[in-house]
Amino acid sequence: MTSLTALTIADARDQLAAGKVSAVELADAHLAAMEKAADLNAFITTTPDVARDRAKASDTRRKKGDVGALDGIPLGIKDLFCTEGVLTTAASHILDGFKPPYESTVTAKLRDAGAVMLGKLNLDEFAMGSATITSYYGPTKNPWKAKGSSVDLVPGGSSGGSAAAVAASLCMGATGTDTGGSIRQPAAFTGIVGVKPTYGRCSRWGIVAFASSLDQAGPMTRTVRDSAIMLQVMCGHDPKDSTSSAHVVPDFEAVLKQGVKGLKIGIPKEYRPDGLNAEVSALWDRGMGWLKEAGAVAVDISLPHTKYALPTYYIVAPAEASSNLARYDGVRFGLREPGKSLDEMYAKTRAAGFGAEVKRRILIGTYVLSAGYYDAYYLKAQKVRALIARDFDQAFEKVDAILTPTAPSAPFGIGERMDDPVAMYLNDVFTVPASLAGIPGASVPAGLTATGLPLGLQVLTKRWDEETLFRVSQVIEDAAAFPRLGAS
Amino acid sequence: MSYLIKGDTGNWEVVIGLEVHAQVVSQAKLFSGASVAFGAAPNTQVSCVDAGMPGMLPVINGFCVAQAVKTGLGLKARINRHSVFARKNYFYADLPQGYQISQYDQPIVGEGTIVLDMPDGSTRTIGIERLHLEQDAGKSIHDMHPQKTFIDLNRSGVALMEIVSKPDLRSPEEAGQYLRKLRSILRYLGTCDGNMEEGSMRCDANVSVRPAGSNELRTRCEIKNVNSVRFVMQAIEHEARRHVDVYESGGTIVQETRLYDSNRDETRSMRSKEMAHDYRYFPDPDLPPLIFDQAFIDKIKASLPELPDDKKERFIRDYALSTYDADVLVAEQENALYFETVAKGRDAKLAANWVISNLFGMLNKQGVAIADSPVKAKDLGALIDLIADNTLSGRMAKEVFEVMVETGKAPAMIVEERGLKQVTDTGAIDAAIDQIIAANPDKVAEYRSGKDKLMGWFVGQLMKATQGKANPGLCGELLKKKLAP
Amino acid sequence: MSLDKATVRRIATLARIDVQEAELEPLAGELSAILGWIEQLQEVDTSAVAPMTGGTDAALPWRSDVVDDGGQPEKVVANAPDPQDGFFTVPKVVE
Ligand SMILES: [Mg+2]
Ligand SMILES: [Zn+2]
């Protein structure tokens, strides 16, 4: 029998159903793996007691024949999701000691489906970053290393803890959140699958807000099927979130094997800028080749405003964040630094509680919303955002899905690119446009660099068409035969 | 009747605009399911949304939307079927999210009007600029600890309507009248209880002055936190005077927020609010635009009660009341209803007199609300019936009314118990007149020689003789006949 | 667009983040670099474009006027740094 931690969610589901393994055994195997891999710093908080309690309860339910879709499946939760009575930090000093009296809708759905929470996963502070290096709790390491190298690499971000933990088989799946690529880019950097659903598919209630008009939760797993299984549970209408959609949720797992025969796949020329990494470019071509072999048709398309997506994002997201993060003021929860006056208390608390990148974005966001600059920056960005969304609308009149690289490079070393914020922001160049448009996107591990590091391909579809997203992703996964970590 | 401030350099006119924050009558808050009830223990009516906890999201209370639309219709205003919630960003201890959810450039209600009834019988039409929905903040309590301010979030998130007038008001009196009229309309609609002491209606006044006859708009100051109509009027009067004095001594007015201190009758600068005003409004990304259809508006329109202006017109038309009487009677819906119960099928003018002079006078003196009046409308109506059928004279009716106030008994019972029935038997009155004539031949002679004024003396004698129970009308009539030469 | 120290100080005050005098200059440099890069948006013609103000074009859902929350003051103040008698507290505010 393969190691319990190497099982996919789908396999574990079958083995649990067949009585070949218990939820407690699965939980224990993963808790042990987590302890052994503590060096990755994937978890901010581990919750072995919660895990064992829930695993026990799951086994009891199973005896009664009363099980949910994820009963007994051990999962990690990005520490941006509020979990009742369990420390929730957003990887920030400012949330010191915060134990929410409520459970986020997404994690409540997972819990109610029987999933077993192993702990809270590391991330960039307030999900602001692309490398999981801005966490107050220290960087997370990518379990992958370049051939013959001992250099620690970043797992991508902001859901880097989730990505590393799933890749290293510390949990079977994890929740992530994606604001500008924070599920897809770390998935690519760690050789796993990450899905950002349509904006409005998953409730944002109980997720610490970064940029409200962009934030979406999604699954991070080792296979496309596992993502389909997890997303099925995570999404659905929530009356507590005014941006949550009442759209019918289709059966994602049911469409996985429908193939791509006859589908038109768009290849946007703007995603192949001069100087694009040759290995990334080659993998992209290979990916399109696989889809053609499976019966799809390649269509050259143009998304003309692509180059403006990042600067647009770096106005919209910080603007919303500057307002969303105003509530961290030392009054009702978290860190408080003493001050002689209310304003001094605020300023000292926020100076001590927020890290450099968060402060940078709050200041940028404050500036672009301030009197005299609103029209030139924020309003302008909202208009360009409309053009970016229109680019996709027009493209999807001609194609069923779009294929691009997920990230412009393979994972880089911890400590690299840290002194130049703009260079760091470029990590998200291929993921941000879809975030701005609110369309769903998935990253599927598709190949390795010459040095043996994972690369991902990104699939995009129109709003609410996650079914096509999963069909295309499944074909890529099948064709790529990606060598998962520790699977060999 | 223009209000002018006399200065050394000439007359000055005052320009006033009012911003009223009216608490929406509802069960739950604007964006959460916590209760809005007044006076609860600290933080007992607070959801995690109201406390600005991480990840909490607002969902709008549809009833509050309907209340805002209803109010807009009551103010004859344009209803915007597409409006937008925006965040107004600023830091304050009782503002948990670090922003107030409000409406900025796209409010739910646009321009409307309020007609003021001035005491001299004239009317003034005041423009409404807009009405928007927003959240209230929590409460800061500064006097519970020497070094600390205490924060209670029970009010945090309560729905407010901010109703902004155009700068159309020209005197403290008009401002007072505007507030009374607005409160009356809100109460009629049932969208705000108008209670200024409990803070469910609060007023900020924007005040500036200009030389009489000029059309310029000079720098205004905003006076905040004024909690009664009288104080608003005093604060405006004081602030306008201050502006005149500053201008006439060669100074300039700086735009600022000022606080009215009713104990000292002065306004002073609010330094705490001065620092870096930059609210960085932007559309709230947690809340898509607020959209409803015409049918929603029409349904609310169909449910509107008769409003004070229409009621007043009807009272003048159907009951032939004076403008003044009608104004007084329609100011509160309960008063108007009381009056109509009394007036139904009776002499409306007489009913109005009784309600305004006797009933309101009594209620005022006793400090009792009309709902708790010891004299019920049907009993006051019955009293008027006893006057109409000559059972009681006006003077006797007043006596009976006093007893009704004390005992709450029906007038017929009081008349019965006290034997107060008016004498209308002409035979008995005639006999009494004959006696008086016989006893006072000199007065009779004087009268007959043309001294008409003596009629009053004869009536007095007659009332005395009948212990006041004789019908005064009848007395005059019979006396005239007997005394005729 | 280049930010000077005074502007950084002003926005830091607006954002209630204490910035030491010595940090102002380097921060101004970093923020200016980001804003300079953002500046390229100005070349996009947006004259006939309506702004996209949120992530969804769905209309606002409504809740009914029912009290179904609150009544848990101990939970509300459980995470507070310095609660007293059921209140949150802050350094005394003078108005
Ligand atoms: Mg205002
Ligand atoms: Zn207001």
How many β-strands of chain B, per DSSP?
Answer: 17
Biggest interface: chains and residue counts? A-C, 67 and 51 residues
Mean pLDDT of chain C: 94
What ligands are attached or bound here?
magnesium ion, zinc ion
- Strand proportion of chain C: 5-15%
**Fraction of helical residues of chain C:** 25-40%
Q: Output the radius of gyration of chain C.
A: 22 Å
The proportion of residues forming helix of chain B, as a percent range, comes to 25-40%
The oligomerization state is heterotrimer
Task: Encode the helix/strand succession of chain C as letters.
Answer: HHEHE
Distance between the termini of chain C: 38 Å
Can you walk through the features of this model?
The complex is a heterotrimer of chains A (488), B (485) and C (95). By secondary structure, chain A is α/β, with parallel strands linked by helices. Chain A is 38% helix and 12% strand. Chain A has helices at 9-17, 23-36, 48-64, 105-112, 160-167, 184-190, 224-234, 252-255, 278-293, 309-324, 342-353, 356-369, 375-395, 421-425, 432-437, 466-480; strands at residues 43-46, 74-78, 116-121, 173-178, 193-196, 216-221, 264-268, 297-301, 401-405, 441-448, 454-460. In chain A, β10 (441-448) and β11 (454-460) form a beta hairpin. Chain A is globular, with a radius of gyration of 21 Å. Chain A starts with 8 loop residues before the first helix and ends in an 8-residue tail after the last helix. Chain B has 15 helices and 17 strands. Chain B starts with a strand and ends with a helix. In chain B, 39% of the residues lie in helices and 19% in strands. In chain C, 35% of the residues lie in helices and 6% in strands. Chain C contains three helices and two strands; from the N terminus they run ααβαβ. Chain C has helices at residues 5-14, 21-38, 73-77, and strands spanning 62-63, 88-91. The two termini of chain C are 38 Å apart. At the B-C interface, β3, α1, β10 and β17 of B face α1, β1, α3 and β2 of C. β10 (148-152) of chain B pairs antiparallel with β2 (88-91) of chain C. Magnesium ion is lined by residues 19, 162 of chain B.
